[in-house]
TrEMBL record:
Residues 99-422 form the Acylamino-acid-releasing enzyme N-terminal domain. GO terms for molecular function: omega peptidase activity; serine-type endopeptidase activity. Pfam families: APEH_N (PF19283), Peptidase_S9 (PF00326). It comes from Betta splendens (Siamese fighting fish). The gene is zgc:136971. This is Acylamino-acid-releasing enzyme.
Length: 701
């Protein structure tokens, strides 16, 4: 294979845009009701080594005789670049658009109306706080009901001093260590809530937040005299927050006069507060503290008038075949129906991602994806971007169909959704994909959680490029509590276009199969999950004669890299190549360097507490379950890709395996990315990883 050809393929599949957010507007023109859908897109551009964001708008005219049907969809407007925007929000009545923008090293708060820029504040010059938070954990930008105030979260100001200021008390503290919230949240330590008064142009920092919590995901309470926020407890010290729904946190209400009260239970994990359109109910997700870092969550509803909380959806331990499998993902910013009686969300469901609606009155959950459509495509993934004016805007995709923007009205009782495609993908691909249901053998069954199965998604080129049989790449997700949905994946698509079959495995412990499946992996990493992947590969080989059993490779990142290295060590004559990104190699040596030290204990079946001191027994258990114990048996050539700034899995993990293999004259290659972290998410890093992975597979298969 020519490297230029490989790079061109990756540039094509990775450069297809995906919608990441949407807003629905409404206007009444005489007797004509007009809706506008504004979608924000993200597009990777390899030649620029960056991701571009742009917006595009559609005009929709509903049927005058049926408000839940679209009569006309006009051609979209042009794509407009969105430059430097960190967070944005639309006011509820006048449709003013607030933006925090970064330009020239400064952060500006802008307010736009129909006539252009209405207000601009230089937040950096005002110097009331540090950088504005734009991440999914803390970031927000919320309008008050009166539309005169804005609420956002920023880093607490830390004034720099030197000895010449004469402030020796502060100068001596200039080198004091400052904790942060771990992987991808470096330098985010002490967030504060900030209120902008648009009439006076002043910024104030809310001071009465409990001292032991870090606030985020803030919104105005009805009436505009108090704010509601999620507070993550940071004592005795901070643990990594990204990808972790098990951090102790609570919902708080803070009055502007300084009174603060906790609204949710104490020893719980909460996130995603969403206020109903009528202002009566607050919806939020709730989970357990510690244990699995990602879990099946309950959906709670808080009556703001009475203060009573009740579950709308409980944790699903073991879903029945074809039934709703639970909530595993964050709620979109807008998820309520206009009448405040229904809630819409997306979630993992076995090997797919589905769109669901729950009725608060009956608590009945309905899938909204299997309905009438203007498209013959079968989508493996439905992701809700927003629901406003009862119009849902979703992103649909499958392994052979890139992200597609679609809309549909919430159905009345007994009706189906009629979906309309606003923006089909530029390209579709001639791949075949299928879902495999896999059952462990009796010897591999988990006695505590017996009878669990799992699955995989198989993607193949429809026609082999050169040979009768296809080489198979086994692709393993990280987490371990995450999922490979049957959705667009540029890495998988690139491999399939180059002639490889790809098997994406959702071993027991993956999300979308119920809480029991997640819990079954605790204490069994390095064994149950390894055998599950091997069982999935054998199932695929037995069911599909187009796959070549003599040309098998394995790849994955994080826990997927952990399993990849386990597989080539435990089955040394089965796989012919391995590619691992930031893999866990030795859990015992990782314990002191990871931002989620609690998972190091939980994963091997041990309880965690903040004051935990390592014991010989705990370290032995971690070592026993680690791939490094099988390093001497590895025969397959191993490609390692490491991010030097990884806070979750230290790059010294991969270096440990690298040295073990080098000392035995085994074939190993290491790629080092000095500016990247755990996800290896930079555009040029991903292109480099794809190129080197394909060349490695081609050479050794």
């Amino acid at each position: 294979m020519d490297p230029r050809q490989i790079s061109d393929v990756y540039e094509e599949v990775s450069g297809l845009p995906a919608p990441v957010g949407a807003h629905v507007g409404e206007e009444q023109l005489a007797e004509l009701r007009v809706l506008t859908v504004t979608a924000e897109w993200s597009q990777s551009v390899v030649t620029r080594a960056s991701r571009l964001r742009y917006s595009q708008q559609w005009t929709l005219i509903p049927d005058s005789n049926n408000r839940r049907s679209l009569r006309t969809v006009l051609s979209p407007g042009p794509c407009l670049p969105v430059s430097g925007e960190l967070v944005s929000g639309l006011s509820p009545v006048r449709g003013l658009r607030a933006v925090v923008r970064e330009t020239g090293g400064r952060q500006l708060l802008e307010v736009w109306d129909l006539h252009g820029l209405r207000k601009c504040l230089d937040l950096t010059a005002l110097d009331r706080h540090g950088r504005v938070h734009d991440d999914a954990q803390f970031g927000c930008l919320s309008w008050s009901e009166c539309e005169n105030k804005l609420l956002y979260v920023a880093e607490q100001s830390r004034k720099k001093t030197d000895s010449r200021d004469g402030d020796y008390a502060r100068w001596k503290d200039r080198s004091v260590y400052c904790e942060d919230w771990g992987e991808a949240l470096a330098q985010k330590s002490s967030p504060v809530m900030c209120v902008v008064n648009l009439q006076s142009g002043t910024v104030s920092v809310l001071q009465a937040t409990p001292p032991d919590v870090s606030p985020g995901q803030a919104l105005w309470a009805p009436g505009g005299q108090s704010v509601i926020f999620v507070g993550w407890y940071h004592e005795p010290f901070r643990l990594g927050l990204k990808f972790c729904s098990n951090r102790r946190s609570a919902l708080f209400k803070l009055d502007l006069d300084g009174h603060c009260e906790r609204l949710s239970g104490d020893d719980l994990s909460v996130s995603c507060p969403r206020l109903s359109p009528d202002g009566s109910t607050l919806l939020y997700l709730q989970g357990r503290v510690f244990g699995p870092h990602s879990q099946c969550l309950s959906l709670q509803q808080l009556d703001l008038r009475s203060g009573d909380t009740s579950p709308l959806l409980d944790v699903v331990d073991r879903p029945a075949a074809g039934e709703f499998a639970g909530v595993y993902e964050a709620l979109p910013p807008c998820c309520w129906s206009a009448d405040s009686q229904r809630v819409v969300f997306s979630s993992a469901c076995r090997n797919q991602k589905d769109l669901f609606m729950v009725d608060r009155r009956s608590k009945k959950v309905t899938s909204l994806s299997h309905t009438r459509s203007d498209s013959p495509e079968v989508y493996g993934s439905w992701k809700l971007l927003t629901v406003e004016k009862d119009l849902m805007v979703v992103c649909c995709s499958s392994p052979n169909t890139p992200p597609t923007l679609r809309v549909g009205f919430l159905p009345s009782a007994g009706e189906r959704v009629t979906w309309r495609t606003l923006q089909p993908p530029v390209l579709t691909f001639d791949f075949h994909w299928s879902i495999l249901d896999v059952t462990p053998s009796p010897e591999e069954d988990n006695s505590q959680y017996s009878g669990l199965d799992f699955g995989a998604v198989l993607v193949k080129p429809s026609h082999s490029l050169h040979e009768a049989k296809l080489p198979l790449v086994v692709f393993i997700h990280g987490g371990p509590h995450s999922q490979f949905a049957a959705e667009w994946n540029s890495f998988t698509a690139g491999l399939a276009k180059l002639g490889f079959a790809v098997l994406m495995v959702n071993y027991r412990g993956s999300t979308g199969f119920g809480q029991h499946s997640i819990l079954s992996l605790i204490g069994h990493i390095g064994n149950q999950d390894v055998k599950d992947v091997q069982r999935a590969v054998l199932t695929a080989l037995q069911s599909d004669t187009a796959l070549d059993p003599s040309r098998l490779a394995v790849m994955g990142g994080s826990h997927g890299g952990f399993l990849s290295c386990h597989l080539v060590g435990q089955y040394p004559d089965f796989y012919r190549a391995c590619a691992a990104r930031n893999p866990v190699i030795n859990a015992a040596t990782l314990m002191g360097t990871s931002d989620i030290v609690d998972w190091r204990y939980t994963s091997v079946g041990l309880q965690y507490s903040y004051d935990q001191i390592p014991t010989a027994e705990a370290l032995a258990a971690m070592l026993e379950k680690s791939p490094i114990t099988h390093a001497a048996q590895i025969k397959a050539p191993v490609l390692l890709m490491l991010g030097a700034r990884d806070r979750r899995v230290s790059p010294h993990q991969g270096l440990e395996l690298y040295k073990a293999l080098k000392s035995r004259a085994s074939t190993v290659r290491l790629l080092w990315f000095p500016e990247d972290g755990h996800s290896l998410s930079k555009v040029d890093t991903q292109a480099d990883c794809f190129l080197n992975t394909v060349l490695w597979l081609h050479q050794h298969l």
